[in-house]
Task: inverse folding
């Protein structure tokens, strides 16, 4: 991991893409995969107009910020909250992008294709619907939210 981080140091970002709860920062030879948990997120803090810490922020806030992974870019820093990061090969990225049509929040969501995948998987191994929607290979992204909402009705 460290070797790849060093290899990407100074390398230009070619694009940024998302599938489900995963955000990919793509470089020429690899991609940084950010996977957000149930409450995960990221904030980009621009270098433009940034002010040094005046010392007024409380200790708890400073400790929380110190524990969050931070990625430095030319224009600012990407600060992660409740997210895991890992460098992946471009083949992994391609496989993830092939699931984009099954991401409910995607502009290219294929409802019929997603339903067909869920039906096929159910027939194949007999899993319950609540387990199928949690499978990120079948329905990336919002499976956790769907399962919680459906179980509360």
Result:
């Amino acid at each position: 991991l460290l070797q790849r981080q060093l290899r990407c140091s100074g390398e230009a970002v070619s694009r940024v893409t998302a599938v489900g709860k995963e955000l990919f920062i793509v470089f020429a030879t690899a991609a940084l995969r950010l996977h957000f948990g149930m409450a995960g997120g990221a904030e980009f803090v621009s270098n433009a107009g940034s002010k040094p810490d005046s010392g007024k922020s409380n200790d708890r806030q400073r400790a929380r910020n110190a524990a969050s992974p931070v990625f430095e870019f030319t224009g600012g820093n990407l600060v992660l909250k409740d997210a895991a990061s890992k460098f992946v090969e471009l083949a992994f990225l391609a496989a993830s992008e092939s699931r984009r049509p099954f991401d409910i929040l995607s502009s290219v969501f294929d409802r019929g294709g997603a339903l067909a995948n869920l039906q096929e998987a159910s027939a194949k191994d007999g899993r319950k619907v609540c387990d199928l929607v949690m499978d990120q290979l079948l329905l990336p992204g919002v499976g956790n939210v769907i399962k919680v909402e459906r179980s509360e009705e």
Observations:
- Confidence is low (pLDDT under 50) at residues 52-64.
- Residues 111-125 form the longest helix (15 residues).
